[in-house]
């Protein structure tokens, strides 16, 4: 049926790191399902959820945060009302982001501790999403000891699992892992663990989704160079990262890279870049810039 084709197109676009091409087929699939719900109710429920999940993920990637938060809450409410724990686990990382956007990152830990008990025995996609949620939460709350107790036990399982071959999951996992390690180094005022970061950065640079992996690695490398006092090199990579994110439509990430560059440059050019970035982030629905910096660029707090 045509609706199945639209779901498949949406999922493929999403897993290929093409959020702008995800929205239309996902929305069309949901429209067709709403018009015809005959037969195979269980299958219809699964396919509608799949279309919902990839559309919500695409909205988050593109920075359409108001729609993201609204549609995520609707999807979560449906999952809670039907006691669909699998759906809640699949949406865990999105829920963690939503809590951060609401400046409520402390809500993530108790929820994730509860959800961890619901994970399947066999390691799979849900474990990776949970692990990424924990790392994201720790980056926002500096609860690194809690995160390491969970992530360090899962990381080797992840690297040896079949799901490690997923380029899109790898992009998320290695990005969150590197971010957590960098944030921990900043918080504890210690040297970043270069060996672990080198592995993360190499994995991102080798990711088949080069249009996403390369700018992500550039941004993280710029952070590392900045912490090492190599300011000019960091500034050059931030420019490249901003261009790379902008080229694929990840405008909030591009704005964040420009903000970091502006803070490092200072002077008139730096102030102009920061003002532009702040305006762009506000237009995307970021109401608490400080909270965003805490989880994404805590080293810039010292430059204020």
Count of extended strands: 0
Q: Return the structural class.
A: mainly alpha
Order of helices and strands: HHHHHHHHHHHHHHHH
Please tally the helical runs, counting DSSP H or I stretches of 4 or more residues.
16
Q: Main beta sheet: strand number and arrangement? A: none
Instruction: Compute the average pLDDT.
Output: 92
How large is the radius of gyration? Answer: 19 Å
Strand content: under 5%
Distance between the termini: 56 Å
Helix content: over 70%
The coarse silhouette is globular
- Poorly predicted regions: none
In short:
With 304 residues, this protein is an all-alpha fold. It has a domain at 1-31 and 44-62. It has helices at residues 2-15, 23-35, 41-62, 65-81, 85-90, 92-101, 108-116, 125-141, 144-159, 167-188, 194-205, 210-227, 231-247, 251-265, 267-283, 289-296.
Topology:
Blueprint lengths: L1 H14 L7 H13 L5 H22 L2 H17 L3 H6 L1 H10 L6 H9 L8 H17 L2 H16 L7 H22 L5 H12 L4 H18 L3 H17 L3 H15 L1 H17 L5 H8 L8
Helix pairs in contact: 1-2, 1-3, 2-3, 3-4, 4-6, 6-8, 7-8, 8-9, 8-10, 8-16, 10-11, 10-12, 11-12, 12-13, 13-14, 14-15
Question: How would you describe this protein?
Answer:
Helix 6 runs parallel beside helix 8 and helix 7 packs antiparallel against helix 8. This protein has 304 residues and is an all-alpha fold. The model has no long low-confidence stretch (mean pLDDT 92). 77% of the residues lie in helices and 0% in strands. It has a domain at 1-31 and 44-62. The protein starts with a helix and ends in an 8-residue tail after the last helix. It has helices spanning 2-15, 23-35, 41-62, 65-81, 85-90, 92-101, 108-116, 125-141, 144-159, 167-188, 194-205, 210-227, 231-247, 251-265, 267-283, 289-296. The longest helix has 22 residues, at 41-62.
């Amino acid at each position: 049926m045509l609706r199945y084709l639209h779901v498949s197109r949406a999922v493929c676009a999403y897993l290929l790191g093409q959020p702008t091409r995800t929205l239309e087929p996902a929305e069309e699939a949901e429209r067709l399902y709403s018009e015809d719900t005959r037969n195979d109710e269980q299958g219809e429920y699964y396919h509608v959820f799949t279309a919902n999940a990839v559309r919500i993920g695409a909205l988050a990637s593109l920075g359409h945060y108001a729609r993201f938060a609204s549609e995520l809450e609707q999807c979560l409410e449906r999952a809670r009302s039907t006691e669909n724990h699998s759906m809640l686990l699949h949406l865990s990382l999105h829920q963690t982001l939503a809590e951060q956007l609401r400046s409520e990152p402390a809500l993530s830990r108790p929820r994730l501790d509860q959800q961890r008990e619901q994970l399947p025995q066999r390691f799979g996609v849900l474990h990776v999403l949970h692990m990424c949620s924990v790392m994201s939460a720790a980056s926002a709350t500096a609860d690194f000891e809690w995160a390491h107790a969970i992530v360090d036990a899962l990381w080797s399982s992840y690297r040896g699992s079949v799901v490690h071959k997923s380029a899109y999951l790898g992009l998320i996992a290695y990005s969150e892992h590197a971010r957590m390690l960098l944030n921990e180094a900043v918080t504890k005022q210690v040297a970043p663990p270069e060996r672990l970061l080198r592995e993360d950065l190499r994995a991102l640079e080798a990711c088949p989704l080069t249009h996403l992996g390369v700018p992500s690695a550039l941004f993280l490398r710029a952070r590392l160079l900045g912490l090492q006092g190599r300011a000019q090199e960091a500034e050059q990579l931030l420019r490249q990262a901003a261009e790379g994110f902008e080229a694929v439509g990840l405008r909030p990430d591009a704005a964040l890279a420009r903000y970091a560059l502006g803070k490092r440059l200072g002077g008139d050019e730096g102030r102009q870049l920061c003002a532009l970035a702040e305006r762009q982030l506000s237009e995307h629905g970021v109401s608490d810039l400080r909270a965003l910096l805490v989880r994404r660029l805590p080293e810039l707090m010292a430059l204020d």
